[in-house]
Write a structure and sequence with these properties.
The protein has 220 residues and is an alpha/beta fold. The protein has a single domain, classed as Rossmann fold. The protein contains 6 helices and 9 strands. Strands 5-4-3-6-7-8-9 form a 7-stranded mixed beta sheet, with helices on one face. A two-stranded antiparallel sheet has the order 1-2. Helix 1 packs antiparallel against helix 2 and helix 1 crosses helix 3. It is globular, with a radius of gyration of 16 Å.
Length: 220
């Protein structure tokens, strides 16, 4: 094994499997998709650590969220091989690349055009198909290709993302970290007959996605 291959195996064994992730497709994807390919060269040594990894190079900080949180949310989403998936706030595209191993089609949105370009380059080098990258703010999602079977937030939200809920298909699922209250929690939101139900998955923290911050309260 190479150094990165060994680190990838340790990440799966020490972070993912120990977090009750048992879905074989997710485990296989995390073993095969090289996380370091989505990380700037000067931070590749950190690619498999249990942390939210900053992948920005100037401007607004953007992150790959912790591997275990990513894996647990993907497992909760129950992505099927026929699904149409939207990854919101994809940064450089690692979560989108994992989803592409599970789904028929993936759209990945990110507000930073430089990160979108890096994501496109990364998946092209790896030969990962059926991912479409688009420059778009997190709250907007991508209504052009809606409805989606699954929407994954690659980060946290401090507000209810109503526009994203509306892009779910009947029976669709949205997973993300909701930080409206403390402690923040990973949640699963499902759509049924224009009603939206939610279920707490686990306590989790993640960086807030740009545009999904809580507005500051007005003080008299």
């Amino acid at each position: 094994m190479t150094g990165f291959s060994t680190a990838r195996q340790k990440m799966v064994d020490g972070q993912v499997r120990t977090s009750d992730v048992t879905d074989a497709g997710i485990i296989e994807a995390m073993l095969e998709v090289p996380r370091e390919a989505f990380v700037p060269a000067d931070r590749q040594a950190l690619a498999y650590l249990d942390l939210d990894l900053d992948v920005s190079e100037g401007g607004t900080k953007r992150f790959l969220i912790k591997p275990a949180v990513t894996a647990k949310m993907l497992q909760a989403a129950e992505i099927a091989e026929t699904d149409n998936v939207l990854v919101v706030g994809c940064a450089t595209g690692y979560t989108a690349a994992l989803a592409a191993r599970l789904a028929a089609r993936v759209t990945a949105t990110e507000g930073d055009s430089a990160l979108v370009a890096r994501g496109r380059e990364a998946v092209a080098r790896l030969g990962i198909g059926h991912i479409t990258f688009k420059v778009a703010p997190a709250p907007a999602g991508d209504p052009a290709d809606a409805p989606y079977d699954v929407i994954v937030l690659n980060g946290a939200t401090e507000v209810v993302p109503h526009a994203l809920f509306q892009q779910l298909k009947e029976g669709g699922r949205l997973v993300g970290v909701f930080a409206e209250q403390r402690p923040p929690r990973a949640m699963l939101v499902t759509r049924s007959h224009d009603e939206f139900g939610d279920r707490t998955l686990f306590d989790a923290a993640a960086p807030i996605l740009p545009g999904l911050e809580r507005l500051p309260a007005f003080v008299f």
